[in-house]
Amino acid sequence: MALPILEANRYTCELPITKKKVEYRAFLVKEQKHLLIAGESEDNTIINRSVVDLLQSCVYTDLNLKEIPISDVEYLFVQIRVKSVGETSDLLLSCTKCEEQNEQVIDLSKLEMNMTVPDPHIKLNETMGLYMTYPSMGDVDMDDNSSETEQVFKLMASCVESIYDGEEVYTRDDMNPKELSAFIDSMNTDQFSELNEYITNIPRLEHKVSYECKSCGTHNEVVLAGLSDFF
Questions:
Q1: Cα angle 159, 161, 164; round to 5
Q2: 87 and 31 both lie in a single domain
Q3: Are 74 and 174 part of one and the same domain?
Q4: Domain check: are 110 and 211 in the same one?
Q5: Which one of 60, 72, 131, 191 counts the least CB within 10 Å of its CB?
């Protein structure tokens, strides 16, 4: 006689950026095991790949995870995690003075999406500028072994939606990665800073934690943001 099959409860949420309604289930024990292994690696590439694999398994809605903004992916992951293992997460945070590990309990239900939307229009000079868009999971090369700086530059380039020069407009279909990289490299520091500011200020899950170090008593404040911080 075959054993009975457990039916998973279904839940829904609305993604904050795309406003898509998504139906999902909690993750299973075997999926949680994969997450724990990925978290122990402390490797963002492994963590990102594990999260995508998890969401593909748990989401019922037809959703291209590599096309939606990373902010929506972060939000969806946290919703699934809350339904799976509870609303709190135990984190070890290092003191900025003595580096002592301090355990902090984070209430995931209180995480807020920073919805201050940066201006996508960046004017480079009197006749030239560009329009930016949010990065997606597809823009993160999970097999990229390049340096962290190089990966940041690639992510920045992936957010360039179009470039205009007077009346001439160049869309992503008109650009190849090498040309776009050369275009960004030709910017002066002020122009590049505007691109960096856009990337820095895109909506994302954030949570500010304040605590006194149990060892030296130093007051610490840290802003948690991104998948790895809430993993």
A1: 130
A2: yes
A3: no
A4: yes
A5: 60
CB atoms near residue 149 (< 10 Å)? 8
The predicted-structure confidence for 163-209, as pLDDT tens digits, reads as follows: 999 999 999 889 998 999 999 999 999 999 999 999 888 888 888 99
Burial of 30 (0-12, 13-18, 19+ CB in 10 A): exposed
Lookup result for tokens 């960046």: 122
Q: How far, rounded to the nearest angstrom, does the alpha carbon of residue 63 sit from its chain's CA centroid?
A: 17
DSSP-assigned letters across all residues of 71-135: HHHHHHHHHHHHHHH-SEEEEEEE-TTT--EEEEEEEGGG-EE---PPPSEEE-SSSEEEEE---
Calpha distance 160→196 (Å, rounded): 12
In this predicted structure, the answer to whether residue 25 has a pLDDT above a threshold of 60 is: yes
User: How far is residue 80's CA from residue 219's CA, in Å, rounded to a whole number?
Assistant: 32
54: Cβ–Cβ under 8 A, 6 or more apart, which residues? 27, 31, 34, 35, 77, 80
> In this structure, are 109 and 213 located in the same domain?
yes
Q: Which ranges of the chain would DSSP assign to H, the alpha helix? A: 29-41, 44-58, 70-85, 148-158, 177-185, 189-200
**How many residues belong to the chain?**
231
**Closest C-alpha among 225, 224, 227, 205 to residue 94:** 224
Q: What is the pTM of this model?
A: 0.85
